[in-house]
Amino acid sequence: MSEKYAMTIDGQAVDAPATFGVVNPATGEVAEQAPDASREQLDAAMRSAQAAYAEWRRDEAARRKALHEAADIMFANTEEIGRILTLEQGKPLADATMEVAGAGVWLKYFADLELPREVIQDDDNALVEVVRRPMGVVAAITPWNYPLLLAIWKLAPALLAGNTMVLKPSPFTPLSSLKLGEVLRDVLPPGVLNVVTGGDELGAWMTSHEIPRKISFTGSVATGKRVAAAAAPDLKRVTLELGGNDPAILLDDADPAAVADKLFGAAFQNNGQVCSAIKRVYVPEALYGDVVDALAERAKAAKVGDGMQEGVQFGPINNKPQFERVGELVADALAGGARAAAGGKPVDGPGYFFEPTILADVEDGARIVDEEQFGPALPVVKYTDVEEALARANGTHFGLSGSVWSADADRAAEIAGRLECGTAWVNTHLALAPHQPFGGFKWSGVGVENGPWGLYGFTELQVVHRSKH
């Protein structure tokens, strides 16, 4: 155990009465201990956020300054926080430091984003404005795939709007968020950001707690439904960023050699542990063999290993349950007649490593096509008619994102516009940015994050009507 990690409550470092082990997925062994917050400590964090809210909401200029300073801290600490992130999450250090830097980029974007005040009437009778007011305390619950960046997706707009926050990261990746709380203590007033860590029970306490007015959650569909149910009795507002089973459709004029790198990169980024990554590829019969071969070639050439090692492209799957799930889905597909054009099994040795896997001769109805695998295994599905491919792509409870690939961008855009999802890309995938709204249709979520729309999700509309009589 090399470092002591503390929670942040009311601007102070706080230990918990108990701790829990954080596993390094590259070894499968416990690497560090994290505080396991008690219910009383959660209450203290919530009260601290509530007390800080009255002052924090008043000074917009101070909030913007603090977010800029927070971004500068992220930029100054990319290496140190990146190493913590790799230790607990598994991703290569280069990707981890990029995530930390990305957190800084998102903070800078929101620090300068306008909070509009709209005049909807100004005549002899009245001046009527629509303004956006903060909600109060926000409870934020974040996942293990991008623990730091997705915390900032919530923190930056919530704080800019004038809210305060209690943040709970995934118990698989709590360390980087604890470090975030530590490094921001100097730039955020006490109580504005509280970071508490623990297991699922802590999350349940948060979602049913009487203080927060909003819950912002990123995670699985099943847990998202439980969050919504817990929020309903108190009519808490919710933003739910949930799972995806994102299709990529290649049209008959796509060039396999030209698109293979982008397809592979968008399917296997972060070892496939991205909610909006490509999860299934639909390919016309005439191109099928070439696409499978091109993707398999890239999978076979990929370097898998401990994220701390130089030149590693893909680290381990983050946690044992997910590692077992990916293995189960791949084994199920192979037992059903699919062919592993590359990979197909765990890597021998310690840690949660799985070979980058391309599955051919697989159909809709196989679990790995119908469900969200969230790991380094990609099914490639053959189709004969593009209308049929579109129907199959849309025939799911998910609706996060999707993409269409063609030499004719206009034709691809027309088909992309018929995908039932929150983001439809043309000849690219996973092109995310702070100014673009991100959210899903159907079971993939409620509300959006990022851009002004994400900011508005942390506000309530208020009409200010001034009579002139």
From TrEMBL:
InterPro entries listed in its UniProt record: Ald_DH/histidinol_DH (IPR016161), Ald_DH_C (IPR016163), Ald_DH_CS_CYS (IPR016160), Ald_DH_CS_GLU (IPR029510), Ald_DH_N (IPR016162), Aldehyde_DH_dom (IPR015590), LUC3-like (IPR044086)
GO molecular function: oxidoreductase activity, acting on the aldehyde or oxo group of donors, NAD or NADP as acceptor
Alphabetical list of CDD domains matching this protein: ALDH_AldA-AAD23400
Keyword Magnesium: no
Residues forming the catalytic site: 241
Gene3D superfamilies, sorted: Aldehyde Dehydrogenase, Chain A, domain 1, Aldehyde Dehydrogenase, Chain A, domain 2
Record keywords: Oxidoreductase
Domain Aldehyde dehydrogenase stretches: 18-464
Xref: PANTHER family: ALDEHYDE DEHYDROGENASE-RELATED
Family: Belongs to the aldehyde dehydrogenase family.
Name of this chain's protein: Acyl-CoA reductase-like NAD-dependent aldehyde dehydrogenase
Organism: Actinomadura hallensis
